[in-house]
From TrEMBL:
First-listed, main subcellular location of the protein, grouped into a coarse class: membrane
A UniProt-annotated Pfam family: BPD_transp_1
Lineage, opening ranks: Bacteria, Pseudomonadati, Pseudomonadota, Alphaproteobacteria, Hyphomicrobiales
PROSITE patterns for the chain: ABC_TM1
Listed name of the protein: Inner membrane component of binding-protein-dependent transport system
Stretch forming the signal peptide: 1-19
Length: 279
């Protein structure tokens, strides 16, 4: 019964990962020159590669900035649309709409928002006397601009999971808390939030994975610039593999990404999983 799923998992996940690691231990073949075994040389080269170091740092900042913000915003939106307010069907559609938009379309739309001088953001800030700036062309704001876009697009998707979790909570818990005189904030902090922790763990893992596989927005909006200020790991893998045609070094960087994601998954499942399920 499990064999078909196991074959697909091995063929499209485990086997490519093993082959990527094997490829990272060889030189990239060029022309008639065959691939030569170099061992861990590519991994040693990363330590002296300033672009890789910058991409790793940018990805860490990007993940630490977008994941908590996306989760908090998704939880807030789910609580709002789960309450007894008028027009909540329209709110649900509005919150979820960014999720169904194509990545390239979203990037081009926000590219207009960030356009210096006449973009929507500068036009809005101009109403309050602020001067416009080159949001995507400034090393201090380029990465942050991508992070705002990511939070806006992903929060609606995560909201669906929180909304489903909220609707599984028994109304009797709220009625019992009301009889005891508990306020809404106390009930949320002591009852609702702990019961949402399994969903939060699931969402957190997906959010971290998404933060390490972003490439569409970077290609359309910044191309990693200026001065690698918005270069992320997967975009650097794309450049190394398809622009510089060094597939072996790109494989080594990919292995590093897999190791980072595996460590994050181990920490989240191995440590946090014990603290988020209740019986």
């Amino acid at each position: 019964m499990l064999l078909p799923a196991a074959v697909l998992l091995a063929a499209f996940t485990h086997f490519p990962a093993v082959m990527t690691f094997i490829s990272s231990t060889f030189q990239t073949p060029r022309g008639k020159r065959p691939a030569k075994f170099v061992g861990m040389d590519h991994y040693a080269s990363m330590l002296s590669d300033p672009v890789f170091v910058a991409a790793l740092k940018n990805n860490a900042i990007y993940a630490l900035g977008t994941v908590p913000a996306s989760i908090a915003l998704a939880m807030l939106m789910a609580v709002i649309v789960n309450s007894a307010i008028k027009g909540k069907a329209l709110l649900r559609m509005s919150f979820f709409l960014p999720t169904v938009l194509p990545m390239i379309a979203v990037a081009n739309m926000w590219l207009f928002f960030y356009t210096p001088g006449y973009g929507l953001i500068d036009q809005f800030l101009g109403l309050f006397g602020f001067h416009g700036r080159n949001w995507l062309g400034d090393p201090e704001t380029a990465l942050g601009s991508l992070m705002v876009l990511a939070v806006w697009k992903e929060a609606g998707f995560f909201m669906i999971f929180y909304l489903a979790a909220l609707q599984q909570i028994s109304p009797s818990l709220g009625e019992a808390a009301a009889l005891e005189g508990a306020g809404r904030w106390y009930f949320f902090r002591r009852v609702t939030f702990p019961l949402l922790m399994p969903t939060t763990l699931f969402v957190m893992i997906n959010a971290f994975i998404n933060s390490f596989r972003l490439i569409d927005h970077v290609i359309v909006m910044t191309r990693g610039g200026p001065d690698n200020a918005s270069t992320l790991l997967l975009y650097y893998v794309y450049n190394v593999a398809f622009r510089y045609w060094d597939t072996a070094y790109a494989s080594a960087i990919t292995v590093v990404i897999l190791i980072v994601l595996a460590l994050l998954a181990f920490i989240q499942f191995g440590i946090l999983d014990r603290k988020v399920h209740y019986k």
